[in-house]
Amino acid sequence: MESPFVVSNAILEEVVIDGFNSIRISSFNPEDYANTVEKLLKDEDMLLKLSSNSSEFIKRYNHNERAKKYIKIIRELL
Predict the structure, then answer these.
(1) What is the pTM of this model?
(2) Whose CA is closest to 61, among 7, 8, 22, 9?
(3) What element of type H or E holds 27?
């Protein structure tokens, strides 16, 4: 089972869906991250839900194909 992440708003929405496969916070403060991780670890139901969703989400996400698309876009821009 995949572990959910706690991420900032800087992470692409196509990779992280807040409340579905991870938790997104609008801060870069390490204490905010620590507090969110602590809450997640204390809420076993939420942790299991996000972990399960992460496992299913990753099956739909082909990293190699996504990387090829980004490389193509970058080459077109250069």
Answers:
(1) 0.68
(2) 22
(3) none
Query: What kind and span of H or E run contains 41?
Result: helix 30-42
Is residue 25 over pLDDT 80?
Answer: yes
Query: What is the rounded CA–CA span in Å between residue 17 and residue 55?
Result: 13
The whole-angstrom separation of Cα 21 and Cα 34 is 18
Q: Which two tokens stand for residue 6?
A: 């706690």
Nearest to 26 by CA among 46, 12, 7: 7
Helix, strand, coil % over all residues of the chain, rounded to 5:
60, 10, 30
Q: Which tokens is 56 given?
A: 């299913």
